[in-house]
Design goal:
By secondary structure, the protein is of the alpha/beta class. It has one domain: Divalent-metal-dependent TIM barrel enzymes (TIM Barrel). Helices cover 45% and strands 14% of the residues. It contains twelve helices and ten strands. An eight-stranded parallel beta barrel has the order 1-2-3-4-6-8-9-10, surrounded by six helices. Strands 5-7 form a two-stranded antiparallel sheet. It is globular.
Length: 326
């Protein structure tokens, strides 16, 4: 399997956190596109439908075409504005839910104009912070109803639910692979699936390779993959493979074994590093993992897995790491 690689456009620029509003000067959209295009492994970008991007969408579309970069997906912006502070699709305020629906419809139009059919939904504000704060039954029902309506209105658009256990809320409604898959199935629509962010999966104390298999067995529901790394306690958004190296190797094996043919998108926030160079380093790691698994051979890994022998698996991991790439 030869994978297609993308990057969230903003990630090749600068990032800020809650402690520092500006680690470096921001880049224009045109410069961000140039920086993304300069990474040889990348052939696409993912976008977030912020007001700033929507305002200049035609110009960005032209610049991406000139740079020969495909728009892979556009994510809803239902997390950066105060009106979403008590949720978007799960809000108890009908007007807020309808505002989220209207935004989604606008983004679907934008998505089509960019030549893509993959809509990413990360419901970052949909959850709760305190006990006895939320009506779990009503709010989860509202969320599922809105996603179902959206899927029914746009049957040719694939909707990928990106889960995360927490942040910015202390608890997210779509917090792990199980709830994402359950929500997708509850809609009853084939065009609703899962966006697996490897860092979010690690935060949820999951094994990302197992999630790939879960999505396969529950109806080929893996629609999209986001890549970054962390130490499992928070969404560190580090260079891919720099921390959980062995997990990445198993992840690539299962992507191969399940026949995943979608995009793999670098989604990291290089706060103190140069954004372009940090994402380029992730791309190098990803190419290395892909080649390493191919060189070692899926058949050899299959044989070890069949034994369910932990010692044999441990021995094979060392052999994998010592494999020479031609």
């Amino acid at each position: 399997m030869n994978y297609k690689y993308s990057v969230f456009l903003a990630n090749v620029g600068t990032a800020n956190d809650r402690y520092c509003a500006e680690y470096a000067k921001p880049f224009t959209f045109a410069r961000l596109i140039e920086r993304a295009a300069s990474i040889p492994q990348l052939s696409g970008v993912d976008l977030v439908a912020t007001p700033a991007l929507v305002a200049v969408a035609p110009e960005i579309r032209r610049q991406l075409a000139d740079a020969k970069l495909k728009t892979v997906s556009i994510a809803l912006d239902i997390f950066t504005e105060p009106k979403w502070k008590q949720g978007s699709f799960s809000s108890r305020d009908r007007k807020v839910r309808e505002a989220a629906m209207d935004h989604a419809r606008q983004v679907v139009g934008l998505l089509r104009s960019f030549g893509s059919d993959l809509l990413t939904i990360w419901p970052g504000q949909d959850g709760f912070d305190y006990l006895f704060q939320s009506d779990y039954l009503a709010e989860r029902a509202h969320f599922c109803e809105c996603v179902t309506r959206l899927a029914e209105e746009f049957p040719k658009i694939r909707i990928a639910l990106e889960y995360k256990p927490r942040e910015p809320r202390t608890h997210s409604y779509v917090q792990n692979a199980g709830t994402a898959l359950l929500t997708a199935h509850m809609t009853g629509r084939k065009n609703v699936g899962v966006a697996l962010d490897l860092g979010h999966s690690l935060m949820a104390y999951e094994n990302p390779a197992d999630v790939v298999a879960m999505c396969k067995i529950h109806g080929d529901k893996l629609f999209h993959v986001h890549i970054n790394d962390n130490f499992m306690f928070a969404d560190d958004d580090l260079i891919a493979g720099s921390v959980r190296t062995l997990e990445y190797l198993e992840f690539y094996y299962w992507l191969n074994r399940t026949g995943y043919s979608g995009w793999i998108t670098i989604d990291q926030f290089p706060y103190r590093e140069d954004g372009r160079d940090a994402c380029a380093e992730s791309a190098e790691w990803l190419g290395y993992f892909e080649t390493l698994i191919k060189t070692f051979g899926l058949a050899r890994i299959n044989q070890v897995i069949k034994t369910k022998n932990a010692i044999a698996a441990s021995r094979m991991m060392r052999e994998l790491l010592k494999t020479r790439i031609p």
